[in-house]
Amino acid sequence: MLPDRCSIKEKGRGCVNPPEFIISIASENDEYMVGVTCDRHKKIFSAKLEVLQKEDKMPKGTINFSALKPVGTDCIKAHPDDLVQID
After folding, report:
1. Residue 49 and residue 60: Cα distance in Å, rounded?
2. 56 DSSP 8-state letter
3. Using one digit for the tens of pLDDT, what is the confidence trace for 3-51?
4. Which has fewest Cβ within 10 Å: 52, 64, 66, 77?
5. 34 — phi, psi (to 5°)?
């Protein structure tokens, strides 16, 4: 499952926009998903990842944005106990 909101926070408040892109970093042998973003925050997210790569806090590699396609269904229902909290 993906988050239902963009991963960016501005002034301590989370973005209310739904995600439009999956953000990943493609290195030599692997690709790492690092978050989701809306179109409005795409450039901000890219700039922040570049800074984190220069500080060796993120893997070096190409930053990729893969467009999400919304899909609707009635057959999948999430139970609150199935969600995992990541700190």
Report:
1. 10
2. T
3. 888 888 888 888 999 999 999 999 888 999 888 999 999 999 899 999 9
4. 77
5. -115, -10
